[in-house]
């Protein structure tokens, strides 16, 4: 079974244990300096310690099992810098998907990103119950709609999309004022009236944000596709024949409790005390920035590869599956032909500044771009990532994981995953179920809901 690096687990557990600061202070006393670590970095890094910790395993046991491990491998270098400004981490999957759209250099990009930010500010302040700020945000969003309407409609690449964008902008404008109206009947703190008003405002904001998504997708150039240098993937077994996803797809995973959970008296998923027979997850898979990884995933879903497969890792950090014969079997990935080679998927990483040219076969750190933000960062609960062997970037196949992101434990840009593992989508419905998934739970079915050719016949922009 392919897993995330044990050395990363060791690093984080060691930092969490507090031993790191002792080593640092001891080194300072002995040498008066320590060139590759600083106490401030250690304190920040220690905050991320639990992110890759394996439940029930202490740092001392892991250190003994890997005596060759060295902290110098994770020096405080520029590539470990945060990928977002300030301390606030954007962990909203829908927002990250909007930011992942390939709009760089497209007419109207600057304006639509400002419009997006203004609508998302409403969400942030609503969650914090900063009502005065919400009302200001609504007015700011309305000004943005009026200021950018002409630019955005004229930026549409086709006449059909121009008409659609104009309609969406008018619908967006109509959703904003009811947010302020709903909050005018707020009532006292903690009252049912307050809850009802906040729910109404939240629903309106979600609709407004979805309309922004629909506007942005219509600005993506028709027939857009990432540029794949075929020479970079030619040496990876089976990679050239993997069908590719151009655009995005929506898929559904249905999970049920496995035999062990049922035997232990937990036959249902428990979400805040409410019980469910099945966990229904919907995922947006992104072929704009990871066409090979996403295409491989959809191809396996079409082949029913994941149907009936048990969850093989659920440790509070990730939920992982995809090993065809389990961790004790000889196979580690999808085998197209009996007795043939395992299909390999090259490491595929897209930088936010150049989405059309994914990087293949190497980590961003190895080519000196570790500080560059990626298109789909590992900073949302339920982000999809490909598992691979530690020292072979092109060893992914069928195993993937849902990252159980925690912004307190895994700050953006300090999670040691961006640029090292391929991220290819987000869980947009049902992510809350992932916290109650345990090893042995079973994928009842995995299906494609909507996808463009060759995985479906869906041609519209709204996945």
TrEMBL record:
The lineage of its organism: Eukaryota, Sar, Stramenopiles, Ochrophyta, Pelagophyceae. GO terms for molecular function: peptidyl-prolyl cis-trans isomerase activity. Residues 268-463 form the PPIase cyclophilin-type domain. It comes from Aureoumbra lagunensis. This is peptidylprolyl isomerase. Residues 1-20 form the signal peptide. Its EC number is 5.2.1.8. Transmembrane segments: none annotated. Keywords: Isomerase, Rotamase, Signal, Thylakoid.
């Amino acid at each position: 079974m392919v897993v995330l690096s044990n050395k990363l687990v060791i690093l984080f557990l060691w930092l969490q244990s507090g031993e790191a600061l002792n080593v640092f202070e001891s080194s300072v006393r002995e040498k008066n300096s320590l060139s590759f670590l600083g106490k401030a970095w250690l304190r920040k890094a220690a905050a991320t310690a639990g992110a890759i910790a394996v439940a029930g395993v202490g740092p001392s046991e892991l250190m003994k099992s890997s005596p060759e491990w060295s902290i110098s491998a994770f020096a405080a270098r520029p590539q470990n810098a945060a990928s977002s400004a300030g301390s606030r981490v954007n962990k909203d999957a829908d927002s990250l998907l909007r930011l992942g759209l390939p709009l760089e250099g497209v007419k109207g990009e600057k304006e639509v990103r400002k419009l997006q930010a203004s609508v998302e500010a409403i969400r942030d302040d609503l969650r914090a119950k900063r009502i005065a700020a919400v009302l200001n945000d609504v007015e700011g969003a309305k000004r943005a709609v009026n200021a950018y309407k002409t630019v955005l409609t004229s930026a549409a690449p086709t006449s059909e999309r121009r008409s659609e964008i104009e309609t969406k902008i008018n619908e967006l404008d109509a959703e904003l004022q009811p947010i302020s109206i709903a909050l005018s009947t707020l009532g006292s703190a903690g009252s049912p009236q307050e809850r009802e008003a906040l729910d109404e405002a939240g629903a309106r904001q979600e609709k407004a944000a979805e309309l922004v998504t629909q506007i942005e997708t219509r600005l993506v150039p028709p027939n857009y596709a990432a540029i794949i240098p075929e020479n970079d993937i030619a040496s990876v077994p089976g990679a050239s024949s993997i069908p590719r996803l151009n655009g995005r797809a929506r898929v559904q995973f249905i999970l049920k409790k496995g035999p062990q959970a049922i035997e232990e008296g937990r036959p249902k998923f428990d979400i805040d005390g409410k019980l469910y027979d099945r966990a229904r997850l919907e995922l947006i898979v992104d072929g704009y920035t990871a066409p090979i990884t996403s295409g491989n995933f959809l191809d396996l879903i079409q082949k029913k590869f994941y149907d009936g497969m048990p969850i093989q890792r659920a440790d509070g950090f990730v939920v992982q599956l995809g090993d065809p014969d389990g961790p004790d079997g000889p196979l580690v990935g999808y085998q197209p032909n009996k007795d043939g080679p395992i299909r390999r998927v090259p490491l595929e990483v897209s930088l936010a500044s150049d989405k059309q040219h994914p990087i293949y076969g190497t980590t961003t750190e190895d080519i000196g771009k570790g500080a560059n933000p990626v298109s789909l960062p590992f900073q949302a609960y339920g982000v999809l990532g490909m598992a691979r062997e530690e020292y072979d970037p092109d060893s992914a196949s069928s195993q993937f994981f849902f990252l159980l992101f925690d912004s307190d434990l895994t700050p953006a840009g300090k999670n040691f995953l961006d640029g090292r593992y391929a991220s290819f989508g987000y869980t947009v419905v049902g992510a809350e179920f992932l916290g109650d998934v345990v090893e042995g739970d079973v994928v009842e079915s995995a299906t494609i809901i909507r996808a463009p050719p060759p995985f479906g016949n869906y041609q519209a922009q709204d996945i």
